[in-house]
Design goal:
Order of helices and strands of chain B: HHHHHEEEH
Largest sheet of chain B: 3 strands, antiparallel
Oligomer: heterodimer
Helix content of chain B: 55-70%
Number of strands of chain A: 3
Structural class of chain A: alpha+beta
Strand content of chain A: 15-25%
Number of helices of chain A: 4
Order of helices and strands of chain A: HEHHEEH
Largest sheet of chain A: 3 strands, antiparallel
Number of helices of chain B: 6
């Protein structure tokens, strides 16, 4: 399923969760992570949206980075979640689930009263 | 999707350099160390993205330098003073007064020349200007300290640098 998120505020809240979630599956460098997000369904996500989030998560200590030499270019910076990042992911997911449940409940009530 | 930074054409290097230079201006509030780290990461990431498509598309995908910088700065817990802007605005203020002062001095000398007088005294924002004319020399002597001009330049520097950001307890809201 490919979706376009047109509300930047909505994306701003969700993107750190998605980044932390994907990087728990496998570490990635910046551009690779963008392509993984696109393949996961965020078709229109831009590099200019993802890179600042990566930078912020690293600064906050949620991500750790290591440089891996590349034979064809400069060393790449691979990101992976730290323990604090994993905890942040779980607490954010819990909050997201609860919020999602409320949204679903309200929408179900709306459907029933139609 | 392997980045081949060494295979980037000269034109693409130029495009990337221009973009990063423009971005650096807008990233000024981040502070030197963090700004350099962001620019270094972006430089390498652009090489990766360009290898997958092309440099023009890779740069376009980042958005305008200003909007991209805003995304980086929005997440900072506290934006620091903008020393770079402060220095530029203070320099412009200094150049402005220098220009006015030179115009004022030129006016005095012109008046001396046309009136036939040998000397004249004037005041320019607290500066005492003594214009003189002899058979062999024509000039203006400056005396007194220009406190008012210095105050204006300092004010320009404070406003340009957003120096109030150094006040403790001032905290930006973090997002993401």
């Amino acid at each position: 399923m490919l979706i376009e998120v047109h509300d930047p505020q909505l994306l701003k809240g969700v993107l750190p969760i998605l980044v932390l979630g994907l990087l728990q599956t496998a570490e990635s460098y910046g551009y690779e992570l963008v392509t993984r997000l696109r393949q996961s369904g965020l078709a229109g996500i831009s590099t200019g949206t993802v890179y600042p989030v990566l930078s912020r998560l690293e600064r906050d200590g949620s991500l750790a980075a290591r440089l891996q030499p590349s034979s064809s270019g400069p060393a790449r910076k691979y990101y992976r979640p730290t323990e604090a990042g994993r905890q942040r992911y779980h607490s954010s997911m819990t909050a997201w689930m609860q919020l999602s449940l409320v949204v679903t409940t309200v929408d179900t009530e709306r459907e029933e009263t139609r | 999707m392997n980045a081949a930074n060494s295979s980037i054409t000269l034109a693409d290097r130029w495009r990337r350099w221009i973009f990063l230079q423009r971005l650096e201006v807008w990233l000024e509030p981040l502070g030197g160390k963090r700004r350099r780290a962001v620019l270094r990461d972006l430089k390498d990431s652009l090489a990766d993205a360009a290898d997958d498509s092309d440099m023009v598309s890779a740069i376009e995908d980042l958005g305008t330098p200003r909007s991209l910088a805003r995304r980086y700065i929005d997440g900072e817990p506290k934006a620091g003073p903008t020393w770079f802007y402060g220095a530029i605005i203070a320099s412009l203020a200094f150049a402005f007064f220098l220009y006015l002062g030179m115009g004022y001095s030129a006016g005095m000398l012109d008046a001396l020349d046309s009136s036939g007088a040998s000397s004249a005294t004037g005041s320019f924002f607290g500066l005492r200007l003594d214009a003189f004319k002899t058979d062999s020399a024509l000039g203006v002597e400056v005396s007194d300290f220009p406190w008012s001009i210095l105050g204006f330049i300092v004010l320009a520097w404070v406003l340009g640098s957003r120096l109030w950001r150094l006040v403790p307890g001032r905290q930006r809201q973090t997002t993401g």
